[in-house]
Every structure is written in C-alpha cells, then in structure tokens.
Records
---
Amino acid sequence: MTVRLSRSLVAAALLAAAPMLAHAADYPEKTVSYIIPFGPGGESDISARLQEPVFKKLTGQSLAIQYKPGAGGAASWAQLNSMTGDGYTVMGTNLPHIVLQPLQKDVGYQTDDINTVYWFHYTPDALMVTSDSPHKTLKDFVEAAKKASGATTMSGSGTNSANHLAQQQFDKLAGIKTTYVPFGGTGPSNTALLGKQVSGSWGYTTVQMQLGDQVRCLAVAMEKRHPKLPDCPTFKEQGFDLVGGAYRGVGVPKSTPADVQAKLAEVLARINADPDFIRKMEEGGFAMLDVGPAKMAKFMADVKARYEALAKEMGISKK
Amino acid sequence: MGSFEYLLAALTPVNLLFALAGVVAGTVIGALPGLTATMAVAVLVPFTFSLEPSSALIALGAIYTGAIYGGAYAAILLNTPGTPSSIATTFDGYPMARAGRGDLALTLACLASVFGGLVGAVFLLLLAPPMATVALKFGPVEYFWLAVFGLTLISSLGEGSAIKGLMGGCMGLLLSMVGVAEVGGDVRYVGDAKALLGGIDIVSALIGLYCMPVLIDLVATSVAHLHAAEKVAGFRLREAGEILRRSKFNLARSSIIGTVVGILPGAGGSIAALVAYSEAKRSAPPGAQYGKGEPGGVLATEAANNATVGGGFIPTLVLGIPGTPPDAIILGALLVQGIRTGPTLFTQQGPIVYTFIWGLILATLIMLPIGLLIGRFAFRSIVAIPKAVLVPGVAMLTVLGSFSVHNNPHEVQQMAVLGVAAWGLAQVGFTASPIVLGLILGSIAESGYVQGHLIGGARGNVLAEFFARPISIGIMALILLGLLWPLWAKRRARTAGAGLE
C-alpha cells in the first residue's frame, strides 16, 4: 500500500517534472510570447516584428508579440523575474533605460535583475539639422554653439533618455553648452526640428532614414558609417569619441534553465545572421549588434560604468 | 491629377474585402468602451503584415476610420465615449437617446462621420503636401496656447454650472500631473503607489468617469435604461436628411476644423471634436438646445473627429511625422512593410500612396451602409437587453477595457477609484467632461509651456516667445473670444428679453 502510494507519487512527480526536463534540445516547442515593454509602432516593436518571421522560419514556432507599456518600460521590467522561467516568455530589454531608471528612483527592479540573453541591434545617436540650416558640418555647428553659449537648442525625445545622454556627452567632448529641449517622443521632437523651433535635434539613424533629405545628418555615433547612410560621417572621423545609442535586446526571467537560455541566444544569433533580416533592419536605419552570452558580462559592466558615471555628472543619479 | 488610375487599383475585390472587414472590425472595437481607435489599429496590425502594402494600408485606414466612428455608439447609448474622440458626442447624443431619439442620433452620427471622413480624405488626396506645412508652424508655444484655448471652452460647454465646470477642469489639471513628468522627469503625487508612476491613463479615466456613474445609477433606480421611439421608424433617414440639409454649414465647418486639427501632431480627435462643438454652439440660432439633445452637436463632433483621420495622415505621409497616435502605429507598420514615408513617398511610391488614399475614401463610403446597420443593431440590442444583463455586461467591458490599456491591473484600479469618485461628484453637480478635458489638455499645456520656456530662455526672450508669434496671437484672440462670448451672449439674451416685455 505504502509502496504503491509512493510509487504513484514518484510517477506524479516525474509527470510534473516532464515538461521541465524536456526542454533545451527541442526548444521552442510551442509559441513563445515576446513582451515589448512599450506601445506598438516604436523601434522596439518594429525590430521585434522583423525578427518574428525569421524566428518562425528557423524554429517552426511563432513569436507572439505583446505590448505591456507603462512607466517608460519599468512596469514590465519590474515583473520580468516573477514570470514563468521556461523560455516561453521573453521580453524586450533596452539600454540605457535599464541602467538609468533604477538610478533615478525605485522602479521595482535593479539593473542586475534584468537578465538579457542577447543584444541584437542598436539605433546609433545622430545629430541632425534641417537641410537648409546654416550648419553644413559638425564643425560649423560646434563653432556656432561656442559663440553663443546655451543659445543653441536641441530637441530630443524625453528627459534622461538616450538622446539626452548623447547631448550631454557630446557637449562635454566638444566643450560647448547647448540647451536640451525634451519632447514626449520622437514624433514631436522631429516636428520641432522640421518646424525650425529648435536649432538641431538629437535622434537616431532611424530618424534620419525616416525624415530623408528634409534633414542633414552632421554625425552618427558609430564606429564606421552606416551602410545605408554613406553621407553621414561618424563622430569618430571628426575627432569626437562618441559611439552609442539605444540598445535593444531580449531578456528572460532569471529562473529560466541555463540550457534554454543558451538555445534562445543561439536562435537569436541565427536570426541576426539572416541576410534578409539584416537588409530590412539596415534599410530601417538600425545598426546590427551581436552581444551573446559569451560577451554579455563584459558588455554590461562597460555600459553600466559608462552610464553610471554620466548619470552622476548629470545629477540624474539619486543614489 | 492623374490619380484616377489608382482608384481602379484600389477597387480590386481583395482590397474592397479588406476595407469592408476593416470597417466592421474597427466599428465594433471602437464601440466597446475602453477599446480605442489606437488599440483597434494596434491589435489588428499584425494581421496586415502578410498582405500587399496597399491592401495592408487600406485595411489599417478602414479599421482606424471605423473605430473613430464606432466610438459614437457608446457615447450616445451609454454616455461613455468609446474613444477619446467622441467625448463631445456625449453632450447631445446621450440626451437624445434618453429622449427616445437614440436611433436618430446614431443615424446622424453615421452620416456626419462619413461626410467628415470624406472631407478629410479629399484634403489628403488633393492638398497633402502644402497642408503638411501647417503642422510645422505649430511650435511648443502654440500647443500651449491651443491647450489653454481648449480649457477655456469648458466654461462654455453649458453642461451644468460654469463654476463647477471650471472646478472640474482644475481637478483634471491636477490629475494630469500625477506620475513621471513627460518633460523633466520629476515624479509627482505618486507616494508609494507604483500604480501611479505611469500617470493617470486617459482611457481608464474616460471609462471610470463616464461609465461608472451611469452603471451605478442604473442599478440604483428601477427605470429602464433607454426607450425606443413610439413607433420604430427604421433608420429615420428622411428626418436625418432634413437635419443634415439644415446643418450644411455646421457640417462643412466641423469637417474643416477636424482636418486642420488632425494635421497638428499631438492635438488629436478629442480637441478637434471639442472645438467643432463649441463653434457649432456659438453660431447656432437662438433657441438651439445644445447640451440638451441638439442634433447639431452630434453632427459637429462626429464630422470633426472623422475628418481628423484624413488630416492626421497628411503629416504622417508627407513628413514622416504621425499626426495622431494610431498614425504612429500605422507608420511603424509601413516601416515593417519596407515603405519609407517622408517627402519622397509621393513621388517615388505614388502608386501605393494614391491607392491607399482612394482606399480610405472607399472605406469611408462603405461605412455608410455598414454603420447604419450596426448602429440599428446596437440601438435595438441596448434597448432590448434587460438591465440585469446590460449592467454586468458593461461592467465587465469597463474592466476589460481598462486592463487592456497596458495589460496590467493598475489602470483597472485607477478606473474604479475615479468611477466611484465621479459618481459622488455627480451627486453635487459635477460632470465628467471638464475633468477629462483637464486631464488631456493639462499635459499638452505643461509640455508646451516648459519647452517654450526652455527655447525662449535660450533665445534670451521668454516673453517674445510666448506673446509675439503670429499664430500664438491668433489663438490668444480666440481664447479672449471664448471667454467673453458667454458674457456677451447672456447680455444679448437679457436685452432681447427686455425688448419683448
């Protein structure tokens, strides 16, 4: 009796454990929900939408994109680790957001709580002016800003955002002082630029792609020029060591088994190697990036150190 | 023009099918309280990725235009704006429904929506590039003044007492400050409540403030919700046509207001409808019953909010700047399709753009029969459903709608708290509209003010930034007119009354 009971208990336990044991090799076996911590239509959404068909092609399973916006993404990230860690719930993660938000206030998570398995692209910062602006080059821009300190106004999306950070970094590198005017999103920021309400704008390569020849790109924060924007010089080639932007990755709850995480990272790496995916991403203005598990620890340590130092200087950091 | 060949391209059976399906899906989603046009487009966007670019665009445009129209149903039948664009539709639509003219109000809303939608689409077709420049003339300071203008309209809405209206507006302004400031990033009035970090969501406020008091009252009294007209007279098209003929100036003016406000990114359908409503009221003949069930009120708001659809596409397609929130999603969908908007779109991808615009016009026309049919069905259902089913059903929708805002319970909590508070406030004579308008306009005014101040400061002259720009001066004149008009009207009424004696 006791034997039989304990045997059935073991069987039940095995049955319960079965789905947990069966993973890694066959992952993914069913639809994976992909939570985007922002609303639809933004860069996080667009890049996820471009990943989706390739994911399906490679794995045979679908990627179901869901939106959970709120508090600039924090509402979702604060919940990440309480979600089921079986690899079937993954979430978009963003830099500098996940470093800056916990520095500013208690948002319900710490940077190290967010377990990103792969950073797959970034939108490099770009300094833009309207196409009829008197500033033909970055040099013109810096000289004008030097002449009248604070009189040059720059639009950008949000306060303490990637755009704001880029403005602060560049002002320091160039020894100038510009006035940053935050707008509630890329759309209003671009409107202010095109309407000449401001002297220039801090945006991304994606914005440059969208606005086309209405704007002139003075510099992009990349190592090398963007393949689809050959006329946009980099900051580096003009003597300013500025490389960065907004990074986007895919994260999972910490409880996700290591082998599943590794498999997910491998799938994401294969998506990133798909020529059609690369072409669509680059045509949209995105810049490809491959930071997988092997490079993750060093990459995160570097960006954390960089953003934390900046946050302290800007007075963002409340700690 | 030479764009008629694109009409034929839009007229393929497949595209017509997508336009039809889009209008039906959009109307139904927009009709449910809490499910907005933005959500309708967002939810249905994934289905369009596998389509041809022009079919995808036509489907999205149809969903959008259907959802803006669908918002009128809940506004008229339940006093709850289905989308923020139909806030002003409640002013006269619900009183009409209470008076047994709900079917007429729905027919009018449909006709006005089609008319407004066509005007907006025709402007998009013929004048998009020159009109897009309007969007660029509006800087932060102009948005600030526009929001102030919207706030002054509260006093003339004429729902209840003006003082209580203004007090409600101030409550809305305070609510708009809760959460992380859009500009500046300060955290305000949050305390320890994480639910408030993201601020008070407009959709959850809409559902709570409008719908909850109606539900509570329905439960608290034994009267039936709505009455059907004495003898059911079909669509009451003849009567509606007669009203339309009398209101042709109102319709044209409201449609143009809607188109122009739609072009301004960041203004949106709620402001367009509000401005059109107050203009209709201002120019109405004496004796018009605005706020008590005047058909002209429904016509003005519905024509204006559907005109914002075409208007909003103007900056979206010409400049690559989304005119309204649903446009932002459609812009993203375009990118996924590999279409880049902006100044080269019309020249390089003319076929897709013109096929889309004609598709939008077709979708708007399809809305006429579809809208009338769904409207009649909705009216009959709401009248026929017993209260014991209606109330829990709508209550469930309010929870679903507010949950779906961000897929988390924070907005449901906000909705419930605001709803109960609104019922309490209604007992002492406060109405929901000023509070909601304060909430919407507060953040626009604040951002505009801070940005204008920063830019003015950088230019070394803050005062000139706010008071010396031509468009700002124009809006300030409108504000003065809006403030002084009720006083003047009252005086005129008094002297007229004295003359009779």
---
Amino acid sequence: MGFGYWTDKHVDAERKLNVRSAVEKAGADAEKVKDIRGQLAPLLRDALLAFSYAHYAPPGAQILYTNPTFVRSHDFLGMQGTSHTWRATETYGTGWPSNAGGRLVGSLSTLPYALAEAEQNFLVPAQTQALIWGDLVPQMIVSAKIPRWWNVSPAQVHWVGLHMHYGRELLAEAALDPGVRKQVVDTLWLYAAPARTSTVSRLLEQGDVKAAVDLVTPSELFSLARDLSTKGSADGSCVLAEIRQLLQQGITYTAVSRAFGTPKPTLANSYEPELLGLRTFPALMGYSSRIMAESWESNALYWAALADEMHIAPAWLNVRIPEWTQKLVEQIFASHLEDWPALLKSLRVVGDDVRARSRAAVAAEKAAVLPESPNR
Amino acid sequence: MTISRRGFITVAGGATLLRAQETQRPTFRVKVDMVVLSFQVTDSKNRYINGLKPSDFRIYEDGILQRISTFAEGAKAPLQVAEDGSTHPLLDAKKDALPGMDRPDAFTGTNVFVLFDTSNFMYKGFVYAEDAIADFVRGLDRADSVAVYTFSRNLSRAASLTRDHGDAISGLRKSVAGDDTALYNGLLLTLRDAAKVPGRKVVIVFSNGPDNASMVAPDDVRAVAEDEGIPIYVISTAEVNRDPVSTAVFRRIAQRTGGKAYHAKTWQKQVEAFEDIREDLGNSYTVTYYPQTNPNDGFRKISVDIVSDPGKKYRVHSRPGYRPSRGV
C-alpha cells in the first residue's frame, strides 16, 4: 500500500484554528479559554518536533527548507490498519508526484537516522554515485550530527592529534627496528583486516613507511598509538612524553571516546557516541549493512586531529564536522561495497583541502595587514 | 527571479584596522531585490514577435506599474533603461550603476541548465536522448552558458555552467544510466544552483520516467522555481506519459514558471522539442526591475501589457508571479 493520498486531521485542525477569533469569542469565560489552550496543543507539538528536526538536520538538508509541511506531517500512528506507535522512525511517501512529499512515520526514537536517510540523496557526489553510498552515508551523517563538541577541551583535541602523530611515529620506527615492527604488527592485527596487516608488515620490512601509513585508517592509527603508548619508555619520543603528561593532567580515554566516538544504534543498541576499536565489518551475503557502516570509526578522530593541526577551537567542530562530512561524502568514489580505501582517500582529500584553504586564508590576511614593502 | 544584494556600509573608515576593532564597528545592511522577468510575445498564429522596444511594454505587479531598469532581446546585449525611457548598453555602465547587478555581462545570453534523466527508465533511449541534448547544446547562441546535470537517485553535475559548449557536451557524454528516479529532488538541487547565478536562466528537464524516489513534492519545487524566476521546460517521453498524474504535474510546473511542457514519443520529437526551446530562448525578452512598494508579502501577480498593441492581438507568455524573498 502506498502513501500517495491521505487526509491529515492534525494539519487540517491547525488550518481551521483561528486563535484570535477564538480568544475574542471566549471573552472572560475561563472554561472557554482553557479549551483554547487545549486547541494550541498540536501547534506546541509541532514546535517541539521542529526543534528536534532542526537539531538533527543533516548538512546540506533540503527537505526541511523546501517542504513547509514536513514537520507538521510527522505521523506518530502510521497508516490505517498498521501501528507505528513507539516504533522506529521510517520514511514514507517518496516518489509520488501527487503527494505532499515524503514524511516520517513512527516515534522519534530513531529520528536522526531517518532524517539522515531521507536527506542523503540531496548530497551531490563529485563522481558517479558510489556503491558504498546507501547504508554508509546515513551513519556518517548521524556520526557528525549526534555528538556535540561544546564541552570538549582543547587538550582532548590535542590528545587525539598526538595519538595520530605517535601512530605515524611508531610506523616509521617499525621500518627501522624489527622489535618495534613486531609490536606494531601484532597490535595492528587486532584492529585491521589480516590481508591489510600483512601488506603493512611487508611494506615496513621494505622500508616504505609512506605507503604503509597510507594503508592504515585513522581509527587504527589511534588504537595502535593508544595500545603502545602505555608500553615502553618515553625517552625517545617527545610526542609520547606529551601524551603521558596529558594523561596525568586528567585526560581520560573514556571522555575522548565519548567525544570522538560514533553512535552505534545497531551494534551497541545506543546512540551514545563511543569508540569500540573494531575491525571494519565485511558485507553480508553481498549486501552492505548498518553494522558494516557502524564499524567505521575514523571520521571524528581524523577531524579532531585536523582541528588540532589547524588550531580550531573545539566549539567550532559543531559547525565544521558536519560541513567536512558533507564534503567527505560527496568525494567518495568507491568501486565496491567494502571499498574502505575510497573512504580513506576521500577523508584525506577533504583534509588536504582544509589545510590548503587555511594556508591561503592566513597568507591573504598577512598580505592585508602587512604594509607594502618598498623592496617588493 | 529576485536577486538580493546585501550592501555592507561601515561607519568608520580606514584601510588597515585591527580585526578586534572591526568587530566593534556597526554594520548596516541594505537589501535590494531585483526582479528578472523573461517572456515571449507571439501573434495569433503563434509566431514570435521581435523588435519590440522597452517603451512598448508596461509591467505590473499586483496592478502597480513598475519601472523597467534593463531590457534585452534574445541573446543581444542588455540595455539600461533611463528614467526618460532612453536606452544605452548596460555593459558600458559603471559596475555599480544598478544595485544588485555587480556583473552586467552576466545578463548577456541565457544560463541554460539541462537536467537529464539517467535513471533505470532511460536504458532504452539513452543514446538518442544524449544526441538530442548534444545537438541542442551545439545550437545554442555563443552568448549562452550551459550546464548539464544528470539525475537518478542523486544529482550529478556532469558539466558545470560554462560558455564552452564543447565542455558541456563532453560532460554529457560521460554520464551513465541506472538507479531510481528522483526527478523532483534533482530539479530542486538544480534550481538551487541556478538561483546562485546572476542573469537570465532556464532549466530544461528531460525525463523518461515517473518519479519514484523523491522526498520533495513537485509543487514545493515549482514554488522555488516560481520565486526564483526560473522557467522550467519539460520534455517527457514514452514511459512518463503512461502516468497521467506525472503528465499533469509537468504541465503545471511548466505553465506556472513560464516554461513549456513537451510530450515527445519518439527521438525525432525530442529533437523538435529541443529546437522549439532554443527558438523560445532566442526570441525572448528579458527585463529587470526593482519592485515598487507593495504591502503584499505573499504571491505577487505579474502582468505584461504591450502598449503598441491596442488591439490585443499579441500574446505574452510569462510566469504569473512570484513570492518576494523575506529578509532584512
């Protein structure tokens, strides 16, 4: 049964309500005024709903700004004969040229994901649409919209940045020292797919550090650094010394995991962001899935390291991370369902672009402030 | 279309003030709306009437007479219309002679956005449709810019807006077919892109299938086109015409935005439809004006009268109106 035509009593009642006329008619009658207050309930419902929708509106959202009845049409009950009460939020009414546009049905329990799913097709891929798009993109959008970084400290952001540095440092050291290599490969084995770990090991043996680093995802780099930072002496590494110093100052892994982890409603049955340090999951019977998408934890960690490098205040991450995520999604050009390297490449493309723009902005600012040199 | 320009007028002067000081300076914003209106004039036999002058037209918004600021015919260079009715080339005018018109050169020619259906419905006629679009692009006036977008479930910018028609065709040739048909999603995004471009613009939709994946409703998209003043031409082919609702929607969208809807069953008819659109573009008049004070913040009805046609023999084909943008 399709959702092409429907009558919406809720919207109809709102259309018919004339508050001024009702108040004038009620006069000083307390009972009638009370009734009017009751009639305002649907409007209050819509206002509260609108706040929720706006709070989780994905980057590049279009439906919210185009369909004036999108929020009002939220249907908690669902179609006649079915019950969506307290069920997960679902999208209905797409692709009907005579209807009022798609709308969401069910409870608000999975609103962020439903909104992300509805809005994902408004992102414009730079290349021909990638196969990996379907399940992965809503999860990426949710991971950029649910966590908020208002209470994150610059030290926490720096801590993530230091871990990325230390991870790369370990890989470089592993190319020279077989002992460190064994430690690195053994640790990487816990987080990366076996085939890729073997390739990294081979590249390190050959001394090709750059190629090895290119194969390791930000979340793997972070986990590698985290695991090995507790072992050995910090004498040879100022980065490790700083990580330990920050630990002593009260930075905890739990807080960082909450700040730069991802929500995993399918895997962990919770929208609470956290880092699980999982290996990326394979496609199941030829299909991608939300579990597969939730196993990708690299984005927020990469953005945090980028923010640390660019000296971006943590509060700005609330704006920048959704923007960067939109660009990341638009740049993905995957050739198969588990093309994780395509994601990694897209992350790095966006990161390089941010760095280049930042450098250009700083240069322009300097040129504007510094007086023209007579020798130039 | 209304073009909004927010001017920033700062009270304090000085070229090299510190940023901290700059943030403390009061900023006054002035919003200027300019309406761009394109229309065609035809006689009773549907033949285009060319060569009319600005003084031949009276533009009304809700019955209020408007003063024409610029005037252009087809792809000819636009003219600035003075208060006394005299005209001179707009390109010779100073950059800021007209508020909201920072780039007078953008008003020469038309910005044509072609939106090409590359969904599953297109497997059969894909090559023919591509050829018809390529022929259309080749035949555009040199002053016209063209962008080729494709859509299935997502939009794809196959060729960004360019005056190099070869580039546009090259982008078109790289497109591939497959996936669901989210026509109205794609059309909305195309309109959003077109709205950012100054000057006259049109969107030409080539679609073979009824929409089966859009989240936005056709009439919400139509309202965006109407308000931005972007005519939509729709060429629909075999599949879509089996769905009477889609056919009616296409007609409504085209009519309300000042475009046209074509039902092209064969590839020959598709070529003819494109030819007709090109004729329309080449025989259009484009005027701009700054709306007179009007208390109506809702839909404003536009009408075009031809004073040199007292017998009312000519017909004017334009969009019926628009909703003014809300702002400062």
